[in-house]
Amino acid sequence: MSRPKSYLIVGAGVFGVSTAYHLIQKYPGASVTLVDRDAFDADSRVAASWDWNKAVRADYDDIVYCQLALEAQDIFNNDPLWKPYFHETGVYWMCRSDYGRKVIDNYRKLGRKAALEVVPVEEARKRYGGLFGDADYTDVKEVLINKTSGWAAAGDCLRAVTRKAMDLGVKYEVADVAGLEIDAQSNCRGITTSAGKTLRADHVILSTGAYTPKLLELCAAKTGRDKLSAGDRIVAGGITTGMAKLDEESVKRFTDMPVGFQGYPADVGPFLGSLPPTKDRQLKWWGWTIFKNTQEVLPGRYLSAPPAEPDYAQWKVTGKLKEDINHANRSFYGKRGAKWTMEKHRICWDAFTTSGDFIISPHPAAKGLYVATCGSFHGFKFFPVLGKYVVQMLEEALTPELAGRWAWDRERPDPKYNPEWPRAEMDDLRDPIQAKL
Ligand SMILES: Cc1cc2nc3c(=O)[nH]c(=O)nc-3n(C[C@H](O)[C@H](O)[C@H](O)COP(=O)(O)OP(=O)(O)OC[C@H]3O[C@@H](n4cnc5c(N)ncnc54)[C@H](O)[C@@H]3O)c2cc1C
After folding, report:
1. What is 6-417's CATH superfamily?
2. InterPro entries per the record (predicted)?
3. For the chain, what is the mean pLDDT?
């Protein structure tokens, strides 16, 4: 009788948890362990996936992600595990290009009927009781309204699916992973934790989000295997989010609002978002500045990584980054938003590739080592299906198109065409030090 399969998945964000959930359903007898620095039900986590709310939409001009997102959304809409977390409030997307028309075309090509349309600006401004009437429409060509998109209560959903995976037999270990166990034949046999513990498995999958390049760089140095390094394949980027508590009167108007987007061309900036209020009445925005935190991780080796604090210093948000959120607020609500007080700010770290495509791939430097991450600022919505594709990758069953797009080694376009590419440096966004007289 053959030994049951064993899997160690490092990182319990959407990539890792979805993989664990799909694996344990396919192989109920397998040993599947999620390892993460944070407990799955901790009050604060560093995962990009751990958040109050995330947009869930299939509004992509890229037909591959449009199709994947529709597949995921069908699960959000119908599966009792996922359904409670999805809110079909629609999206309101201010387009400065033909984006909206391309999305509609993709739905048509995929044979999907849905309540989506592009609306002239003057007409759109009056929709939803004029909620976005005071937004910045400079250079906006038209507005895409898709009533079938919406948002998910991200942290609650992540917890629920992790719990379900554990009920099915997945183990969850809280540990900081510091190294990889690679034997002389280049087989990856397991991981080591910073507390000195070794965990072994036939398959080691890194779903470590923004920390991935640093982890691989440290492992490359420790094992003397340069090829483990991610090089310029993955860049850690931070984005600020901010939340304001709405007063009684505003909350009535905003409760059923669609997710707002401001889309810009790459030379102007990344898209901005405003998400509907959470159950404790907090409206959320993400900012315009996507930044690296370039640091010397080893003598002479520089790369971007989240700050070294165990919580990635995610709650330490500078005045400049708070201003970034004020800018987002004004872009959606003009003067009306000025009276809301921002109560909470967080820096969210994600792993980016130049094209925005994920990496779901074997790592060529060691047999049994895999990478499944790089959400590139849009990975959450695929949570229900990511694991299905990671399992296909493990079994060499991905379609050639997906295997090519998500490969470790692939053509990487110039990031100048990617509006979401991290362009700023965290160091330049620090507050000035006050002179001490
Ligand atoms: C501000 C912001 C807004 C976003 N909004 C949306 C949105 O509206 N819709 C959408 O679809 N997507 C959105 N995204 C993108 C999405 O959140 C991410 O792409 C996705 O969550 C990434 O998932 P992940 O599993 O790769 O990484 P993460 O969720 O970051 O998980 C990585 C995990 O690895 C663990 N880890 C790392 N290193 C180690 C180690 N050495 N040892 C142990 N554990 C380790 C971490 O603790 C963490 O739990 C947004 C991202 C940001 C930053």
Report:
1. FAD/NAD(P)-binding domain (3.50.50.60)
2. FAD-dep_OxRdtase (IPR006076), FAD/NAD-bd_sf (IPR036188), MTOX (IPR045170)
3. 96
